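We modelled the chain as a single entity of 230 amino acids. Its sequence is:
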Amino acid sequence: MRGQHRRKNGPVASALSPADVRAFIIENLRLEPVPGLPEIRLYAAHPGSGLGRLGASGRDDSPPYWAYNWAGGILLAKHVLNHPNIVRGRRVLDLGAGSGIVGIAARKCGASAVIAAEIDANAIVALSLNAEANDVAIEALNADILSGAPAPDVDVILAGDVFYNAELASRVLPFLTSGRQAGVVVLIGDPRRSALPLTALRLVAEYAVPDFGVGSGGDATIGGVFALEA
């Protein structure tokens, strides 16, 4: 799921116009329920999608993470749907939003506002389409908010699969820690990837979910939802 903050660089421009990306997604991806979460439908890749024609945001090293169901996003979406009071009436940041699954779940559960932050311009188009398909409103933010710019004013940060590697973790953890110290609730969904800072986290819940992350072919894995300690 996670397209945000994979590199140190800033926002990744698309090789195509937003209108062209939107048309491509509608014509070539399948709008279907998320595995295990029939409440949410997303445009998802399949063997005949031809995603290479989309241009991978204009870079050979920028896979379309937003077109697949990553464990971290499914974990958080499932947890929020099971416990809607986490977000009800609150302002939420979906960090590294990818497909937008987490923000969509939050809005379905009554979040007053959701900001979906993503560096991939193609993902911005995809998550906006996914929000429309689920009849929710999400503010898409195409920016690298780990770069030192002022963080959005929110009550809750939901971050799925943002501890992808050590370099990424070194940028994400200070951002999340700063938010937590300011009183923001921080929840992380992760299938315990190697860079996850477990010593700074408290396990809140575990779920069996499919994963299309590194080294996985979509098989089920037991992942966790973690709270960042103050």
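As a brief sanity check on the tokenised model: The longest strand covers residues 201-210. The chain has one domain: 18-228.
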